[in-house]
């Protein structure tokens, strides 16, 4: 590697991509790993006024403390002011019910922002490199997070800059070695998820076999995608301004106007994704715009109703929040329990299931969306084989269910009827009869 | 799989994505494989007037002929008019110096177009499915073919429609099995390249481990990318009209105006890619727009000069065509011979190479771009160790080179000087001396 070229590229990136002009004050996120050590070294030797911050997440016992001591010594040697902070990450995880990666992220950025406010610093630099960006691209591609996700990692967003995105992880290590910069290796790497590792160690190497310059090709791909996304966003902003009524939590989106837009699906995606709708649900919403009105779709926080003239977006009501919906296109749900749903024509030789975990209902009686919810006081149904109603609570007693079993029982609801006490008994009204033409099969998956 | 849903989805795709209205006459490309057999069956049962065409590429001897007999029998049984044509593909490959896949493609589409003209048919249907589109996406991602390549395969382009793109390869086979449609399996699958197989059997399965619904996610990804590309193209067309002077083979692109466009790189990509410039060369052109004027870049057919005010694009002259260029950023070239190029600072302990395939030149004398070309009559240089000039032809005689060796010898040219008779001897003027500061290392790779 040509060190001078590398340093020049770093400085060009700092100016052209990160928008850093002249000698600025920069807060450097310093873990002690090769990326952040190279970052601090490069910034210091590019006439930047650096202040370092180190987060001790107390996740790797002695190793975490050794990292802290390591950066303290280096900063003293390099004459860089250092702020260190210890976090009880495990407690934070327990309190907030989030993943370790998410907890570390939240704690880190909260600290960074506090320091920036107190010290009046406007720029935070992180050591993300080009391989990180490629992995992010593939993660987002696999998850379907839309065009934005395919732009990789931004060189600059708000106060955060990432001037090492031009470099590979290997180039950074070479830089450290050539400049005799010491660095620590994180033996566990809590921030590297299982999926990221799969992409790093299995998927990317296969692409490099296809194209040895895959890193450069992906840098170009992501650059083009970023520019395409910018053009796209300009159009999306225009559409939002011209088309949509309502603000914040509730929106009215006129169906006719949206239909006339030649890029209606991606526009709808830009409008609805901030409200937590996934790519596939948005896809279904777009398809249902030209169907019979009345369909409903749900995100974690919002409900969207396709009415005659508008898509109506409102926050979920309290009742909604404890209800889970199954649309006609749904083939599987994961929440609150894993169910698989199929529809098929009844054949003459059909014999229905006697397994209480896999049931067959008369599909002609079903009116989507179906709802999955917990029992309410007073719920009644006609257990299979009976012609009169029985209270759910009595049914549970008959079945000798334990308290835990009762609490974990879910109901499948069709038009306010209990169609199935999931895992236990279907309603007699929904059973397959000689006149049934289409069958809905619902199974509990493991 | 729900057959009725599948058929409905096929018909929806035919209308909404392929723009087929009412009962149309369609030419169906019928190989006899599952995809094209399902396609013909679905089209026939969707009230389309089908005419089938089968290409016998004579690539698999008896198997090819059995395929032909198979589709003849099926078309008789299904009452579908069939046109068959035999090609001597191997001869076509030899004559045109192209790959088997390319030859099959050219022969096929030439035949399709002829039939469409003669029979006045406006639509050609091919059996490409969703898995093909995903593989195309990854191939183009790996090669860096720009945003367009990431839109996968189009449902409709000119007269060609691909109504099976919504389906997976497996769904198509299930459809064939459920409908008792016979099909042939191509044991060699000449049209499946090595790279496509790598993507199909190694890369896609890894993504499916990350996301079991990867097929649907990718369908959505490609749909969003297609819409983004449409918006992007509308902008690119506008830029081309407003900014560029000249037509066809020669263009003038004003640097200042292009610099002011916030998506200059992707705009430049759209402008230059049709002239055969690769993504990475276009990237370098964009970077050099703000540097010293005079840089030149080459595609197979065109030369681009960065002058003071404009990018000037002209067709390559005859001399250009037999010359290959090495720019200052070039690290490797593959054509006309494989060379690797490095620059580094001379250290005190430097000892230059005595290997005639790996040479060290004084980089301070080098003025990019370097040129690689064959010897011309009258070419002279100063062989290392000599202070006078010698004719190349005399040098070849001294070296006792065979005719074949002479014909395969290339020269590395710097500013009209021969700096290296590649693989044999450097020029004395370019040798490393005590005053050399920077070294250019050029090696012949195997």
From TrEMBL, chains A, B:
Its EC number is 6.3.4.19. Coiled coil: none annotated. SMART domains: TilS_C. Its main location: cytoplasm. ATP binds at residues 31-36. HAMAP family: tRNA_Ile_lys_synt. It comes from Natronoflexus pectinivorans. Pfam families: ATP_bind_3 (PF01171), TilS_C (PF11734). Ligates lysine onto the cytidine present at position 34 of the AUA codon-specific tRNA(Ile) that contains the anticodon CAU, in an ATP-dependent manner. Cytidine is converted to lysidine, thus changing the amino acid specificity of the tRNA from methionine to isoleucine. Gene3D superfamilies: HUPs. It is found in: Cytoplasm. It catalyses: cytidine(34) in tRNA(Ile2) + L-lysine + ATP = lysidine(34) in tRNA(Ile2) + AMP + diphosphate + H(+). This is tRNA(Ile)-lysidine synthase. GO terms for molecular function: ATP binding; tRNA(Ile)-lysidine synthase activity. One of its GO terms (cellular component) is cytoplasm. GO terms for biological process: tRNA modification. It comes from the Bacteria. Belongs to the tRNA(Ile)-lysidine synthase family. Keywords: ATP-binding, Cytoplasm, Ligase, Nucleotide-binding, tRNA processing. InterPro entries: Lysidine-tRNA-synth_C, Rossmann-like_a/b/a_fold, TilS/TtcA_N, tRNA_Ile_lys_synt, tRNA_Ile_lys_synt_N. PANTHER family: TRNA(ILE)-LYSIDINE SYNTHASE-RELATED.
């Amino acid at each position: 590697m040509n060190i001078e070229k590398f340093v020049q590229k770093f400085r060009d990136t700092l100016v052209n991509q990160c928008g850093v002009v002249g000698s600025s004050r920069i807060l450097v996120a310093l873990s002690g790993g090769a990326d952040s050590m190279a970052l601090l070294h490069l910034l210091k030797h590019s006439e930047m006024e650096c202040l370092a911050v180190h987060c001790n997440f107390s996740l790797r016992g002695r190793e975490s403390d050794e990292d802290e001591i390591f950066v303290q010594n280096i900063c003293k040697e390099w004459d860089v002011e250092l702020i260190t902070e210890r976090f009880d990450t495990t407690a934070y995880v327990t309190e907030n019910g989030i993943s370790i990666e998410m907890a570390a992220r939240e704690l880190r950025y909260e600290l960074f922002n506090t320091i920036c406010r107190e010290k009046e610093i406007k720029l935070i630099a992180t050591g993300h490199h080009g391989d990180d960006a490629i992995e992010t691209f593939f993660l987002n591609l696999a998850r379907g997070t839309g065009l934005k996700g395919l732009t990789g990692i931004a060189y600059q967003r708000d106060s955060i800059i990432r001037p090492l995105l031009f470099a590979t992880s290997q180039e950074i290590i070479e830089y450290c070695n050539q400049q005799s910069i010491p660095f620590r290796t994180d033996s566990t790497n809590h921030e590297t998820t299982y999926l990221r590792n799969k992409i790093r160690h299995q998927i990317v190497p296969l692409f490099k076999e296809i194209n040895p310059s895959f890193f450069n090709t992906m840098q170009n791909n992501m650059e083009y995608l970023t520019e395409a996304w910018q053009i796209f966003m300009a159009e999306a902003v225009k559409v939002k301004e011209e088309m949509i009524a309502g603000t914040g939590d509730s929106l009215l989106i006129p169906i006719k106007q949206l239909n006339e837009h030649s890029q209606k699906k991606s526009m709808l995606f830009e409008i609805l994704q901030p409200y937590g709708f996934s790519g596939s649900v948005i896809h279904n919403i777009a398809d249902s715009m030209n169907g019979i009105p009345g369909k409903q779709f749900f995100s974690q926080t919002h409900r969207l109703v396709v009415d005659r003239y508008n898509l109506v977006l409102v926050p979920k009501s309290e009742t909604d929040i404890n209800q889970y919906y199954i649309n006609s296109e749904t083939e599987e749900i994961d929440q609150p329990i894993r169910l698989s749903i199929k529809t098929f024509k009844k054949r003459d030789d059909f014999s229905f299931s006697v397994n209480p975990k896999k049931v067959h209902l008369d599909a002609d009686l079903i009116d989507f969306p179906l709802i999955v919810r917990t029992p309410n006081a007073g719920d009644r149904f006609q257990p299979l084989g009976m012609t009169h109603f029985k209270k759910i609570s009595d049914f549970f007693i008959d079945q000798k269910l334990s308290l835990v079993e009762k609490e974990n029982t879910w109901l499948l609801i069709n038009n306010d009827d209990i169609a199935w006490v999931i895992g236990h008994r279907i309603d007699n009204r929904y059973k397959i009869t000689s006149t049934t033409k289409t069958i809905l099969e619902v199974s509990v998956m493991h």
